[in-house]
Hints:
The chain is of the alpha/beta class. Helix content is 28%, strand content 20%.
Amino acid sequence: xxxxxxxxxxxxxxxxxxxxxxxxxxxxxxxxxxxxxxxxxxxxxxxxxxxxxxxxxxxxxxxxxxxxxxxxxxxxxxxxxxxxxxxxxxxxxxxxxxxxxxxxx
Length: 105
């Protein structure tokens, strides 16, 4: 599974996505793209976008993009707060389909 970590997600989460190909937005060359542009660019190359942006589902029609989205909801977007969500996120990676959005808290 090819996973893209949004700019707002700490790059330290990469190590938790074992058995998956993971790049940050910066590494993928998408730094600075707004949500719609990012989703369009990532749809061609990635299976899942991982973000902490809880408003994304209200800003974009996600069904029009060929990418799934996992939103991590925690008190802060730092590694210690996001790490506990990773076991569930890894389970979801096995089931999520393009156009779906799943919120984890």
